[in-house]
């Protein structure tokens, strides 16, 4: 039995009783033709923008094929495409898709992994839209980046749209226009999380700012404070707050910016005193974790180590034993002595995969209800088979292309991140 067949055989079906939304048991193509939305499992707080890309219906042969047939067709297409293809699978992607990935990792690791395959003309990114954009920014002009389902977006990334950030920036520039600048620092440095559109990465590139990941957010904030009196951090308030708090910045100097309110819902005095202005964005997956879940895990599993992703709310991160990126969590579990017990606050597909990869430990998700990232869920082997077989026929579907001028500015912000050192 091949490792792919073994992986597929160990799949656990999502049962309607245990999942946060019974529609997660259905094929994602059922949600490709309606209104723009994030699909089953997204929270009530997530409202997809009207211009959210829609997938449209894929051919019936891919919607109706059995798992075994799709596996055979994907493997055959991969074989035919050979070195001209690289398939990337994000940690939060479902196992049935990750089974075909040449690289598995976080968004930035995957974009960099694709760079090691210079001969790959096609980069098929089994993640979400901003990840495919980042891969396109970093790849060569000859390479095409493909997102198997165009509706695989990211609700957090969409919470900071370009026009709202531009408007915020104008208000802040007006507010700080007469500030004493004898210290030589900028009034504000914009910092965007990797989970943002290419347009926002370009925005920060143009305005002296920088990109961060969940692995290097503290280093990036230090870089920013060497150049500015404050930081405007978007879109994830939780990563910004958790990171700044760990650096000793008091909460009262971290006002929130709600783009729907005048002055972001804050006031001039607070914004003058601010060190980090936090955009009102969040990840619906990580927002589900609570301190009560941690308390219950400690009672039910004495000695459990709680690891939380920094996209979780601050009380959860504070109550955890450690917090870190997906890479950190993966390494912490791998390095632990056999018999360790981990309660993990991050996306269910990654936690289940860690549990399967480490039978020597007990690894479980803190959220007892299975609620995967609703947008990653939109990619299913049927879409992968569809885009790969089209490539075999010489047709590039679902290409993600960032305009050259946007890519150039975004690359400046990404390169600043790479150059930032602790
Ligand atoms: S887990 Fe959250 S931040 Fe990550 S892609 Fe899904 S919605 Fe976006």
UniProtKB/TrEMBL annotation:
<keyword id="KW-0408">Iron</keyword>
<feature type="binding site">
    <location>
        <begin position="309"/>
        <end position="311"/>
    </location>
    <ligand>
        <name>iminosuccinate</name>
    </ligand>
</feature>
<keyword id="KW-0963">Cytoplasm</keyword>
<comment type="pathway">
    <text>Cofactor biosynthesis; NAD(+) biosynthesis; quinolinate from iminoaspartate: step 1/1.</text>
</comment>
<feature type="binding site">
    <location>
        <position position="154"/>
    </location>
    <ligand>
        <name>[4Fe-4S] cluster</name>
    </ligand>
</feature>
<feature type="binding site">
    <location>
        <position position="373"/>
    </location>
    <ligand>
        <name>[4Fe-4S] cluster</name>
    </ligand>
</feature>
<dbReference type="InterPro" id="IPR003473">
    <property type="entry name" value="NadA"/>
</dbReference>
<dbReference type="InterPro" id="IPR036094">
    <property type="entry name" value="NadA_sf"/>
</dbReference>
<protein>
    <recommendedName>
        <fullName>Quinolinate synthase</fullName>
        <ecNumber>2.5.1.72</ecNumber>
    </recommendedName>
</protein>
<feature type="binding site">
    <location>
        <position position="283"/>
    </location>
    <ligand>
        <name>[4Fe-4S] cluster</name>
    </ligand>
</feature>
<feature type="binding site">
    <location>
        <begin position="193"/>
        <end position="195"/>
    </location>
    <ligand>
        <name>iminosuccinate</name>
    </ligand>
</feature>
<keyword id="KW-0808">Transferase</keyword>
<dbReference type="InterPro" id="IPR023515">
    <property type="entry name" value="Quinolinate_synth_A_type3"/>
</dbReference>
<feature type="region of interest" description="Disordered">
    <location>
        <begin position="35"/>
        <end position="54"/>
    </location>
</feature>
<keyword id="KW-0479">Metal-binding</keyword>
<keyword id="KW-0662">Pyridine nucleotide biosynthesis</keyword>
<feature type="binding site">
    <location>
        <position position="90"/>
    </location>
    <ligand>
        <name>iminosuccinate</name>
    </ligand>
</feature>
<feature type="binding site">
    <location>
        <position position="326"/>
    </location>
    <ligand>
        <name>iminosuccinate</name>
    </ligand>
</feature>
<comment type="function">
    <text>Catalyzes the condensation of iminoaspartate with dihydroxyacetone phosphate to form quinolinate.</text>
</comment>
<dbReference type="GO" id="GO:0016740">
    <property type="term" value="F:transferase activity"/>
</dbReference>
<dbReference type="Pfam" id="PF02445">
    <property type="entry name" value="NadA"/>
</dbReference>
<feature type="binding site">
    <location>
        <position position="214"/>
    </location>
    <ligand>
        <name>iminosuccinate</name>
    </ligand>
</feature>
<comment type="similarity">
    <text>Belongs to the quinolinate synthase family. Type 3 subfamily.</text>
</comment>
<keyword id="KW-0004">4Fe-4S</keyword>
<keyword id="KW-0411">Iron-sulfur</keyword>
<feature type="binding site">
    <location>
        <position position="107"/>
    </location>
    <ligand>
        <name>iminosuccinate</name>
    </ligand>
</feature>
